[in-house]
Amino acid sequence: MFTGKGGVGKTTTAAATAALAASRGVKALVLSTDPAHSLADALGVPLTGEPGEVDAGLYAMQVDTQAAFERSWHDVQAYLRGLLARAGVDALQAEELIVLPGADEVLALLELRAQVESGRFDLVVVDCAPTGETLRLLALPEVLAWYVEKVFPAHRRALRAMRPLLGRADPTLPPDGVLGAVERLHRELADVRALLTSAATSVRVVLTPEAVVVAEARRTLTSLALYGYRVDGLVANRVFPDSDEPFLRGWVAAQAAQLEAVRADAGGLPVLLSAYRASEPVGVPALVEFGGQLYGDADPAADAGPAPDLLDVQADGDGFVLSLALPLARRQDLGLTRTGDELVVTVGGHRRVLALPSLLRRCTVAGAALTGERLRVRFVPDPAQWPDALLGNGALSGRAARLASW
Ligand SMILES: Nc1ncnc2c1ncn2[C@@H]1O[C@H](COP(=O)(O)OP(=O)(O)OP(=O)(O)O)[C@@H](O)[C@H]1O
Ligand SMILES: [Mg+2]
Q1: How far apart are CA 335 and CA 349, in angstroms?
Q2: In this structure, which residues have their CB less than 5 angstroms from ion ligand 2?
Q3: Is the dihedral of CA 190, 192, 198, 203 positive or negative?
Q4: How many angstroms separate the CA atoms of 15 and 292, rounded?
Q5: How far apart are CA 279 and CA 247, in angstroms?
Q6: Positions in the chain whose pLDDT score sits under 70
C-alpha cells in the first residue's frame, strides 16, 4: 500500500512498482482506492471497476465504490428506503440519505480483499488517497467492528425477543436480510483487518524531501504503528539532480538536509530515492523506467520479513506490561485512558481503542511511559479480582506467555 501527503507521487510510485514487477514476470494488479481517477492518467489508459490487463502481466483497476455499494448493501438500502418513505421522506431525498458516510471507503477495502483472495495475482499494489483519508480508511475495520460488536448484539437480541410479539409483518423491523448483511459485514471487516495486518502486507510511505512533507511523514509513521500497520520502507520522490544553476543548487542543499532527517527518522527502514524527471512519468514504459531507477536490482514485491511485535504483553514482576510500538511519538501528543475493558490510546488526532484481554481486564493500570519508541503500560492485578494463589511468586508469567499472540 502506498500512502503519503497529497501530490507527492503516490500514484506514480504505486503504478511504477506494479509495472516493474510485471516487467520482471510477476503477475501484478495495481488498484486505486482514490476516487480521483489519477491512476488511469498515470498509466495513460482508461480503467474500469474490474482488473483490466494494461500490459503483459500488468493489471489495473479503479474501485467502483458505487457499484460495489449497490451489490453488498442492496438489502440494507431497500429496508432504509422503505422506512424513510413511510416516514414521509420523498424518494429523492431518501436516495441521498441512504448513502452511508464512509461506506464507499469500506467497500474499497472489501474490493481489495476480494482481489487478493481471488488468487489471480502474485502482487497487489494499492494506490491510496492522501494520508489523512488513508489513515481513516485503515482505522475503519477495527472501529466498525467495535461498533458492530457493541451496538449490534444488544439490538439483535432485543429484536429477536420482540419479533414474536410484534409479528413478522411489522415494516419498521429490519428483515433478516438486513441483520444478515450487518453480520456479514462484521465478518468481512475482520478478514480485511487480518489481511492488512498480516505478514504479507506492508505500507510504503511516499514523500518529497521538503520540511512540511517530511513532518507529515513522521506523523504518518507513528499513526500507522498505532493502528497496527507495518511500514517496510520510505520513498523520497522528486529529488533534484546536482546542478551548478543557483536556483537548483539551493533546492539540492535543502533537500539533502531533509533527506538526512528522513534517514535518521526511518530507524533502519530503507529510504529509496527517485529523481525529479524532466517530464511526467506517464505510460507503462516510463513507469517501468521509474520503477527500475527506484528499486535497482531489488525486488519491488519483496516480503517485508517477519512482522514486528507492534503490540504485546509480557509478565513483569508482580504484574504485566502492555507495550505498543509508537515510533517518533512525542510524549506531549500522547493520551491514554482506561475505560473498563478497553484502553484508549490517542496520538495527535488519532485514536485506537484496544479491547483488553481478560487477564488485563482484572488489573489496574499502575503507570505508563514512552521509552525506546514504545508506549509501555504497566498493569497490576486487582486483588479483589484475583484468587490469592495466583498472586506473587512469578505465577503470572505463564499466563503472559499465552497472551503473546494477542
Ligand atoms: N519523480 C517525478 N518527476 C517528475 N514528475 C513526477 C515525479 N513523480 C510524480 N510526478 C508527477 O507529479 C504529479 C503528481 O504525481 P502523483 O499523481 O503520482 O501524486 P499523488 O501523490 O498520487 O497525488 P494525489 O495526492 O493527488 O493522489 C503527476 O503529474 C506525476 O506525473
Ligand atoms: Mg494519487
Answers
A1: 10
A2: 10-11, 38
A3: negative
A4: 12
A5: 19
A6: 66, 68-76, 79-80, 83, 96-105, 147-148, 150-182, 306-307, 387-406
Does residue 280 line the site of ligand 1, with CB under 6 A?
A: yes
- Per-residue pLDDT, 348: 86
DSSP 59-116: EEEE--HHHHHHHHSHHHHHHHHHHHHHTT--HHHHHHHTS-TTHHHHHHHHHHHHHH
| Rounded Cα–Cα distance for residues 258 and 252 (Å) | 10
Whole-prediction pTM: 0.85
Report whether residue 291 contacts ligand 1, using a CB cutoff of 6 Å.
no
- Round to whole Å and give the CA distance between 232 and 255: 22
Which residue minimizes the CA distance to atom 2 of ligand 1? 276
pLDDT reported for residue 394: 52
Best CA proximity match to 186, nearest among 155, 141, 154, 136:
141
* The pLDDT value given to residue 402: 47
Cα(282) to centroid(ligand 1), Å: 10
Per-residue model confidence (pLDDT) at position 404: 43
Mutate to test the pocket of ligand 1, among 12, 33, 207, 274 (most ligand atoms within 8 A of CB): 12
Distance between CA 373 and CA 119 in Å, rounded? Answer: 37
